[in-house]
Amino acid sequence: MTLTERIEGDLVSAMKNSDELRRDTLRLVKSALKNQSIEAGHDLSDEEAATIIAREVKKRKESIEAYNQVDKPELAEQEQKEIDVLLDYLPEQMDEAQIKEIVDKYFETNPKDITKMGQTIGALSPQFKGKADMAIVSKIVREAFQN
Question: Looking at the domain covering 96-146, what would its CATH class be?
Fold first, then answer.
């Protein structure tokens, strides 16, 4: 069963169980997946679907920050609940120690040249796609260049 099929099945279950939060969140994700599928011209792979779900999580994290800045904790809480639903569909995220280990291993065979930071991130990104927040990866790579 693909990730997209799993989301569709869970959406039907949420509708049957009157789980409004899960239903509404999955509808938004299903719509984003459908739009991307149409744009790409093919059914999405699980990796592509996970990338889109990760993007949706990132949007909600940004919304939480904005709501907290304008003192709207109830809206920030709603966004966090949606994130919790979405995280069920992403692979387990790597922690900073795991990311640092992969970055350190990369630098064992590649030079630390700060002018090639973009190339370094590009070379590492396939290993982290859908499994780690690229902002954290970027921070760890930047720290590695400074050491």
Answer: mainly alpha
Domain 3-87, classified CATH 1.10.1510.10, yes or no: yes
Task: Give 58: exposed, middle or buried? Use CB within 10 Å, 0-12, 13-18, 19+.
Answer: middle
Residues 31-45: tens digit of each pLDDT: 999 999 999 999 999
Q: Say if CB 46 and CB 2 are below 8 A apart.
A: yes
3, two tokens: 């990730």
Task: Answer whether 83's CB lies under 8 Å from 57's CB.
Answer: yes
Q: Do residues 99 and 137 lie in contact, with contact meaning Cβ atoms separated by under 8 Å?
A: yes
* Residue 56, SS3 per DSSP: helix
> Rounded to two decimals, what is the model's pTM?
0.75
Q: Residue 118: how many CB atoms within 10 A of its CB?
A: 9
Q: How many CB atoms lie within 10 A of CB 52?
A: 20
Place of tokens 């239903």: 23
